[in-house]
Amino acid sequence: MESLGHVKPQSLRFEQPLPLKSGAQLPSYELVYETYGRLNADKSNAVLVCHALNASHHLAGTYEGQDKSEGWWDNLIGPGKPLDTDKFFVIGVNNLGSCFGSTGPMHSNPVTGRIYGADFPVVTVQDWVDAQARLLDHLGIGQLAAVLGGSLGGMQALDWSLRYADRLRHCIAIATAPNLSAQNIAFNEVARRAIITDPDFHGGHFYEHGVVPKRGLRVARMIGHITYLSDDVMEQKFGRELRATELGYSTQDIEFQIESYLRYQGDKFSDYFDANTYLLITRALDYFDPALEHGGDLSRTFASARCKYLLASFTTDWRFAPARSREIVKALLDNKLDVSYAEIDAPHGHDAFLLEDPRYHGVLRAYFKRIAGELT
């Protein structure tokens, strides 16, 4: 299978204010995005891919002059790959509030002229989907062949199918849930408190002080990373292996290899991710609950849906367990919708949706082949 080679991001500025679910609005904003493949004559082959917490618009391909710059879903998207760019026009959009180019806390508020910082308005999955819809309007795409996403991206795909029911033919939601469990919200809150209580956070206005709350970001990432891996993978990779040849009997030094690995992940994350963005995106995860407006009834929630669905989950994913996907599947079946479901026995935990598992990729390849067969 070929690589897409070098790709270039694009940006689009919107001067029309974007109303937000919170009641606030963004007076103007910019979205950064990438596209791969070619849009066909009747614009029926477009696939929108929605990203998860710490990802971006850079789905596939590489950046010229940058080492290790492969897109985060490069194993899935490209010529001859399950999402084949010889057949589909693929769009990746960086969400508002991110730190990878689209308007977020690190940018200037056009009203005050100051960096937003903690004053950037709270954004939700619905707000992201509304912004994505505006971008598609600009591209002249009235209806998508599919919306695809994993984890938080899967929530966006589900929201597309509910709020823009006529604008997509297929919804593909991987390793996701209809809302977060109390345990998931708890993990997010502990991670947020690690950031907020960092002395360098300065109430979210740390940019003005020329510092970064790296200690908080490191801990937040360590907490998150534990939840993305399965116990089996952690045991296989690290077990109780020591960093040195024998115990050092220290309460503060690194003793075990798993500790070293988590600190490495935390250090790396704190060098590139924005603290306010982390707070915003984890809150968007917490708030997602489309059934709330229907008395918690998920079947009623999907009564207005019209597209076809593919859901996939992974047996060792305890953060977005298969049972949560099955809740969605039941609601779809209650409404007699066309739904396919794959529960994949994979050892990798939640991170499995990012990896090149042959069974998982086989499911997606077959489904996108089905979609390609529907194209005119």
From TrEMBL:
Keywords: Acyltransferase, Amino-acid biosynthesis, Cytoplasm, Methionine biosynthesis, Transferase. It is found in: Cytoplasm. One of its GO terms (biological process) is methionine biosynthetic process. The active site is at S151 (nucleophile), D317, H350. One of its GO terms (cellular component) is cytoplasm. Pathway: Amino-acid biosynthesis; L-methionine biosynthesis via de novo pathway; O-succinyl-L-homoserine from L-homoserine: step 1/1. InterPro entries: AB_hydrolase_1 (IPR000073), AB_hydrolase_fold (IPR029058), HAT_MetX-like (IPR008220). It holds the Pfam family Abhydrolase_1. One of its GO terms (molecular function) is homoserine O-acetyltransferase activity. It catalyses: L-homoserine + succinyl-CoA = O-succinyl-L-homoserine + CoA. Residues 45-356 form the AB hydrolase-1 domain. Its EC number is 2.3.1.46. The record marks R319 as: Important for acyl-CoA specificity. Substrate binds at R221, D351. Transfers a succinyl group from succinyl-CoA to L-homoserine, forming succinyl-L-homoserine. Belongs to the AB hydrolase superfamily. MetX family. Homodimer. PANTHER family: HOMOSERINE O-ACETYLTRANSFERASE. HAMAP family: MetX_acyltransf. This is Homoserine O-succinyltransferase.
